[in-house]
Design a protein that fits this description.
There is one protein chain. This protein has three domains: about 10-130, Sandwich (Jelly Rolls), CATH 2.60.120; about 165-310, no CATH class; about 320-470, 2-Layer Sandwich (Heat Shock Protein 90), CATH 3.30.565.10. It has 13 helices and 16 strands. It has helices at about 15-20, 30-40, 125-130, 130-205, 215, 230-245, 255-260, 265-275, 275-320, 330-340, 345-350, 370-385, 440-450; strands at about 10, 40-45, 50-55, 60-70, 70-75, 80-90, 90-95, 105-110, 115-120, 325-330, 350-355, 365, 390-400, 400-410, 455-460, 460-470. The strands form four sheets. A five-stranded antiparallel beta sheet has the order 1-2-9-4-7. A five-stranded mixed beta sheet has the order 11-13-14-16-15, with helices on one face. The radius of gyration is 35 Å and the shape is elongated. The relative contact order is 0.08.
Length: about 475
Amino acid sequence: MSGYTSGQTIDLAPEELAARLKEHRILASVPPEELAWVAAHGILRRFEPDVVMAPHDQPVEGLIFVLSGHMAIYVDRGEGRHKVLEWRAGEVSGLLPYSRMKTPPGDTVAVESTEALTVSREHLPELIRRCPQVTALLVHVMLDRARLFTSTDLHDEKMKSLGKLAAGLAHELNNPASAVVRSAKLLVDGLVAAETASRELGAAQLTPAQRNAEAVRSACLATRPSGAYSTIEAADRMDAITDWLEAHGADAAIAGPLADTAVTLPALDRLAETLDGRVLDLALQWVAHGCAARSLAREIETSASRIYELVSAVKGFTHMDRETVAQSVDVGQDLAATLTVLQAKVKAKSANVGMNVEQGLPPVLAQGGELNQVWVNLIDNALDAIAAGGRLDVSARREGGKVVIRIADDGPGIPPGVLPRIFDPFFTTKPIGQGTGLGLDIVRRLLNRHNGLIEVESRPGRTVFSVTLPAAAK
């Protein structure tokens, strides 16, 4: 892409230029006197392919009628150029009447050789007075463009949010999925070892008095609770059981499976009172391999349950099994699902998360998938704001006929000079590639569609976004 250029001016007589404007699709029905005014106040330029006609960091020059060629706006959000809008011959770009746009969202580039007539922004007030039919047509164009920007921005932001969630979920799912695969492989070998030990122990033909190995094995049903031992305590227990096995001539390799159960050294001592030598070793092998198999089976069950919970949370978060129409939505349930799908980021920040949802909270009438787009943007921003080990609080309560959701963080706060602009499209304080400047703008748009309101209060150490939604009628 070449640098910025103001283009090559084309000199045409006013009558010729008006005739060319008459061929423009939008201006075809405009009275001759209005065409003549536009021709007299416009500048016709030619732009070569791949040059920047209007850079993103400069004010929009004015209203642009594309007479030939092809131009487009490209936005770079840290991932390379991305085309967001384009115009061809017979279309209008630039600053439209009554528009509040100041700078374009990206660089306007000539995709091919392009001829465009520009009416400077300083002439637009007079255009509105002198050319009512042109103005009316351009207002319709502006409304269509606003709808297109809205749908394009929402789609882009949804895809970016989806990418964040997919990355987080991939991390969250990887741990239990890996545990299932690992444990399933070990379980096959463990079952074989347990069957072999059981067979050999049976062949030893134990007397009734010697069968207290069954009491030791029942300790498998009482595997130690997770975190019951500190790292030092666990190491000491492992060493003690290893020493006991070696002292009794048993295989020390089974110390690990025994240490993970509630088996005690006194229980092992009682076993050694009736068994010794090869028979004691067989009994211990039978106990250890049986315990290991049970432990692996439990780990598979726990990991599979975690996968099921994550998939259920994603299903609830996306509302993919529901129609895309407004329905009664349980806000508390959706906030919990959002925190679940963002759990990887919560862990990465070592965040302390509090959630307080009023019991009996009434539902809201909304399109659940869109409302969850609001929660993921606000919670993700809060996680970005806090330091490692920071605090995030999510609450929801009834206030009159409304449901109020508050998302608070203990980050550094939003500077007073920035606070009034945070909902502006394309405004972001994040580094290039980390923020689009669309998240909060889209949050506000989505809440407007649901008759909702968003407010923010911020000071150093405390930022609160408050979302108010009407409760669904009973």
